[in-house]
Amino acid sequence: MTEIDQVVDLRSLPPTRRSQALALVLFDHAGAAHQLPMRGRRLLQQAAAYYSAAQQADGERPDRLGRDLALAAPIGRPRAADQAIVASAVAFQREKLHPNREPSFLRLDEKNQRTALRLAAILRIASAVQDQSLDLQLVSGEEDAFTLIVEGAHAAETIAAVEKRAQLWREAIGPLTVRAAEPGEVAAARSADWRRADCRGGAAAITALF
């Protein structure tokens, strides 16, 4: 089976919007691994927006402010779980994670807790590269494994930033490798408007460019 994947270029977006857009691209291309419904995409978009707003307002603790913004938003009782998922995903952008100490997370049942953790994991990766104008390539492999390939002047710094925030992805979603690109590797992929996934032995090499 062959799939077609669209090239996505986020470099023209301002940093605050790039983080949100990148989070959604990661959600879309890692769907087979995180196994979240489309409802999760909407919740991720909300979490990214709250976190971005908090980063602009409070550089020291945007995780806390963003969580509080999410919890303060008016919402009906049937969607209270969604609000807690969004708040938890933002709260888990902090450096040290302690899920069992987060009240909004403890309100959720086991299924919704998994959703919150996976959304948080995606947002952590997206926020690690939001300030860099880089060429990035996400390639999927066997057993929900992904490789994030980084090319650009700030590749080393970005790889370090992603690695610092990648543990939750590995725990909640699956294997993630982050590496520098070979010379011209990502730029060559960017030259085509569309690329086909190469499926060999059940492994799909799905490519997305950010």
Short note summarizing the structure:
The chain is of the alpha+beta class. The chain has helices at residues 15-29, 31-34, 38-57, 62-72, 80-91, 103-106, 110-128, 155-164, 167-172, 185-190, and strands at 4-6, 135-140, 146-151, 176-180, 194-196, 198-200, 203-205, 207-209.
What does this molecule look like?
- It is a single chain.
- The chain is α+β, with helices and mostly antiparallel strands.
- It folds into 2 domains: 4-13 and 133-209, no CATH class; 32-128, no CATH class.
- The chain has 10 helices and 8 strands.
- The chain has a 4-stranded mixed β-sheet. A two-stranded antiparallel sheet has the order 1-5. Strands 6-7 form a two-stranded antiparallel sheet.
- The chain is globular.
- The model is unreliable at 1-7 and 193-208 (pLDDT under 50).
Distance between the termini: 25 Å
Rg over CA atoms, rounded to whole Å, is 17 Å
Shape: globular
Number of domain modules? 2
Helix content estimate: 40-55%
The DSSP helix count reads 10
What is the overall pLDDT average? 82
Q: What's the multimeric state? A: single chain
Main β-sheet: number of strands, strand sense, barrel status?
Answer: 4 strands, mixed
Strand fraction equals 15-25%
Going across the biggest sheet, name each strand in turn.
4-3-2-8
Please report the total strand number as a whole number: 8
Structural class computed from helices and strand pairing: alpha+beta
Order of helices and strands: EHHHHHHHEEHHEHEEEE
- Poorly predicted regions are 1-7, 193-208
